[in-house]
Predict the structure.
Amino acid sequence: MPPDTLPVPTDFLAWARRSGGRAEFVNGTAQHLPAGSLAHDTICGNLFAALHAGADGIDRHVFLGALVEVPGVGYLCPDLVFGTWSPSDDEVHVRGPQLVVEVTSPDTAARDRGFKWKAMQTIAALERYVLVDEAEWSVEVFARGADDGWRYERLTGTEDALSIPSIGFAMPLAAVYRGVFRA
């Protein structure tokens, strides 16, 4: 677990690099993140595998639990992040992700829909913010439009698919929830 207060972001990043623990650094305070449930981990694994298969592995990568730098806030730790990264970059956090996915639970849903969603909107490169409910068949997609406004779509049908055209990605909800719910 991180110390409650680390004086500067570089201290937090150094701790994160050494520990490998899941935590966030918000307004000068390190906050521990709870472990996910088996349903949470299964959904994350399903999404990671599909996104990884579509990433080119050169510039575009998908990460589980990577820190994301959020201007004016600090470092947040979404469940999945898709974006550009180079091995010469920092080994701990991603700047300017295209896609952020949070798998919500009763304990995290309010924070994921509230504070984190508001903070992530400030990332200019972010195209999609996706909330996947681990307890019911529901995926919420916030998509940035050409006018910089956000469109909302809720997917709940067994025939629905999570689609992210800018990265050439589409995944049926049945595949997102494979091993958790039956279609």
Notes: The radius of gyration is 16 Å. Residues 35 and 126 are 25 Å apart (CA to CA). The chain is about 25% helix and 30% strand. The helical segments are 9-19, 38-54, 109-120, 173-176.
